[in-house]
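Support request, priority: normal
Reporter: lab tech (M.K.)
Component: structure prediction queue

Hi team, I submitted a job for CUE domain-containing protein from Lactuca saligna yesterday, and the status page still shows it as pending. I've pasted the exact input below so you can check whether something in the sequence is tripping the parser. The sequence length should be 298 residues. Please let me know if I need to resubmit or if it's stuck on your end.
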Amino acid sequence: MSAVVCGEKIIFLRGSYPTPSSRFFALDRLIALFPDMDKQLLERTLNECGDDIETAIKSLTELRLVSVEQAASAVGKESEYQIHPNANGVTNGEAVVENSSPQKPPVDGADWVDLFVREMVSASNIDDARIRASRALELLEKSICERVTSEAHGLQQENMMMKEQLQALIQENSLLKRAVAIQHERQKEFEDRGQELHNLKQMVSQYQEQLRTLEVNNYSLTMHLKQAQQGSSIPGRFHPDLKQASDRKQDCWHCQQRRRTNDYHHFPFCIHLFSTLKQLPVVLPYSSIDLRFCRCHL
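Reply from support: The job had stalled in the queue. We restarted it manually and it finished. Here are the results:
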């Protein structure tokens, strides 16, 4: 009973998968495994193998290897990478045929993976696979060296450019520092001149104030002189006491009277008036000038 059940189970499992007798499934599987081959070639191979998909796969694989070997022998020495001298003849009793390599090296990692896969699939035996892997690795090494050399050269040129820019910036910085120092000196000189100009303006203001004071004094003296000239009773005559006091350089009578009474109120007016009137070519009477020619003013 158990044997019958097991047999039925085996029959059920086998029937659950498409059998090689299913021509449609077998052809689709061959197309998926060999997309680079012609569909008619796949159908013919499948017919020759009696719709046995496993036999058809082996036959197509051998056919692919033969076509690859023929293409490799046709390319020969025109390929970019040469096979090792031991591979030109017979190695371990098995013939090793050269395989063509791509003229341009791959660019990215996916291209390198495809290259290795193609080389391994195209290998006819272990020795051929080793030779192909060696050539691919040499190509990879050469590509890496060229890329590193190119990048190093580019970095060196960029470094030189950066150094030149740095030198230019240093020179420009020194020029700017010098310009700032000159500008600072000029600013300091301008401030000093401004301070000096301010001091000169203050001095001018003081001199102008003194000039106004002198003008007022001059006007006052002029008015006193006019009043003295208008009030003189005997023009052209000096009082004898004034003449005698001037000759002997003694105090006049009025000064003596003032000294006796300790009245010096007239001295400031006498001093300022005398400093101006003593240079005038006029003759004043005794009543207006006797106090200016005393000994204390001569």
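Confidence is low (pLDDT under 50) at residues 1-18, 75-102, 241-249, 264-298. Residues 126-230 form the longest helix (105 residues). Let us know if anything else looks off. Ticket resolved.
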